[in-house]
Amino acid sequence: MRSDVVPARATVDLAAVRANVAVLVEAAAPAAVLAVVKADGYGHGMLPCAEAALAGGASWLGVATLDEALALRAAGINAPTLAWLLTPGEPLADAITADVDLSISTGWALEEVQVGAREAGRPARIHLKIDTGLSRGGATAAAWPDLVEAAAKAQADGTVHVVGVWSHFVFADAPEHPVTSTQTAAFSDALDAVLRAGLRPELSHLANSAATLTRPDTHFDLVRPGLAVYGLSPVPTTRSAAELGLTPAMTLSARVALVKRVPAGRGVSYGHRYTTMAETTLALVPLGYGDGVPRAASNTVDVLLAGHRRRIAGTVCMDQFVLDVGDDPVCAGDEVLLFGPGSHGEPTAQDWADQLDTISYEIVTRLGRRLPIVYRP
Ligand SMILES: *Cc1c(COP(=O)(O)O)cnc(C)c1O
Description:
Layout: E1 8-13, H1 14-28, E2 32-36, H2 38-42, H3 46-55, E3 60-63, H4 66-74, E4 81-83, H5 92-97, E5 100-104, H6 107-120, E6 124-129, H7 144-156, E7 160-166, H8 178-196, E8 203-205, H9 209-214, E9 222-223, E10 250-255, E11 258-262, E12 267-268, E13 274-275, E14 280-285, E15 302-305, E16 308-313, E17 321-326, E18 335-339, H10 349-356, H11 360-365, E19 373-376
Parallel strand pairs: 1-19, 2-3, 2-9, 3-4, 4-5, 5-6, 6-7, 7-8
Antiparallel strand pairs: 1-10, 10-18, 11-14, 12-13, 14-17, 15-16, 15-18, 16-17
The structure holds pyridoxal-5'-phosphate (PLP).
Pyridoxal-5'-phosphate (PLP) binds at residues 36, 38, 84, 168, 172, 208-209, 224-227, 234.
């Protein structure tokens, strides 16, 4: 279908992705940039965004799962890539053959990676992860000496190459929090232990988007921005995307499917959670929670149609929702902007997040699978 007649779509501006990454590259220098493209590029499409990020100056890619890393390789994207979420029994030999770097937090993973390396006939490239306080991935400080020692042995026997040491912040959106400094100090201690064990990893890395843009003291050799790649502010309470030099890459839009006049007092959508105040025009928008518009947006979130922001009227359904447009001359086929960079007066994903008591990450990442993504080069 021609993109201008697709009923509903996400449009992703790849020039914005490239420009956002260029901003991150400048902020990070002399540290290098790993662009995080997990979860289908935060909903923006992993492959086009990975290519745009590399074109914008990123030298590494980061993903959560092995599947994501292997999909990059299958598409011919061969930039250094780190995958950081392993569970037992995954095809590590395939990852090693595909030159995917693996994060190791614990003994079983190191053992599996050594088995995989023997199968692949080459050493696995690994990044040892220290838990500096998030209590999510990573080895605790107590477990760190054993993991480091085991990794040094594995490197000596040729099954692994310890490429990196890394960790992740607790206050992803508040890098000025004192815990950020505590974590940075714990990270430096963990790094010292690695050096004392005789390992010489080329890379240490800790910073996410927020720390990349606001905490140069946490940059080490490589930074790992995700959200900012897509142009959303990682510190929305203190600085907007525009203030950070970022441009939101995604616009969610649809074309009105139906308009009709109804009298005052008419209940609208499931459960009649909205009632018309006067005779009015209702406009039907062909997007619902099946496409990633949260049901919690019912009667809560504003969208742009015919030059005005209008609140969603009543319940968001699986495939559609309704707007009350009053007496405005709205026609079937008119464009509704749900969120975007804000350049046409539309709300941003951050506005949606504020209205829905969540974070912009969730708004863009949760788009439904049936929704087409149209790329602007
Ligand atoms: C998702 C993720 C990132 C990117 O975080 P942003 O806040 O989106 O910049 C970095 N590192 C790890 C380990 C992650 O899981």
